Amino acid sequence: QVQLVESGGGLVQAGDSLRLSCAASGRPFRSIAMGWFRQAPGKERELVSAISWSGANTYYIDSVKGRFTISRDNAKNTVYLQMNSLKPEDTAVYYCAAGHSYYSEKYYSPREYDYWGQGTKVTVSS
Question: Which site from 28, 99, 113, 116 is most exposed, i.e. has the minimal number of CB atoms within 10 Å?
């Protein structure tokens, strides 16, 4: 079992920045891929960004490329999502997710993730 606790969401204006954090426990953090999903009202949950277990590889959905950066600190069992130049269309509940396979390289696949945090709300006003 994995426990994931997100923090860092809030209400910001367009163009502002936020950093989301996700503290993980219950699994060997450094052996699993980590991802950030989001779900906007009336829309399906989508994989926004992911990072491989080693941290060497990352994935971003096209709409956030160049604005969001995912990183991980294995010593702290924490994954981050730095979000810059936020847009109103980034408004959503953001969920941290942990992969189910050790040393998997399929960090980019939504099906890789089985464990979820409770979500943190990000609201970007225009």
Answer: 28
Residue 18 has pLDDT above 90, yes or no: yes
Contacts of 7 (CB under 8 A, 6+ apart): 20, 21, 22, 23, 120
> What's the count of helices (H) and strands (E) in the chain, helices before strands?
0, 11
Q: Look-up: residue for tokens 């990352």?
A: 58
- CB 67, CB 124: distance < 8 Å: no
**DSSP, residue by residue, 91-114:** -EEEEEEEESSTT-S-TT-GGGEE
* pLDDT tens for each residue of 43-84: 999 999 999 999 999 999 999 999 999 999 999 999 999 999
Whether residue 12 is predicted with pLDDT greater than 90 in this model: the reply is: yes
- On whether the CB atoms of residues 80 and 19 are closer than 8 A, the answer is yes
CA angle 9, 18, 93 (to 5 degrees): 35
Which of 70, 38, 77, 75 shows the shortest CA–CA distance to 56?
A: 70
